[in-house]
Amino acid sequence: MNNRRIALIFKAFCDENRVEILEILKEGEHCACELLDKMQISQSTLSHHMKILIDSGIVESKKDGKLMHYRINKTGCEEAIELIHYFEDTKERIPSCCK
Which residues of 54-66 are buried (b: 16+ CB within 10 A; e: fewer)? Predict the structure, then answer.
């Protein structure tokens, strides 16, 4: 996994609004209008957050006519979990030559 991908995944969790969106999506698939009603944010703000969540792979979307529907992407969540485990697997520090 490259550093850009890692940053996209972590970015998804680094905003209170995005975390709230994820909490709502835990209930199941929601359309954009439902998220707007629950979040009390503007359409442009929702679009901004959804782009970040989709780019991270944590959320996936599908279009149904004029409506956009969103849901948690289990594969993306598994990738995020693997990423956390990757960083917890650390090695002992080798003493440096600097004193």
Answer: bebbbbbeeeeee
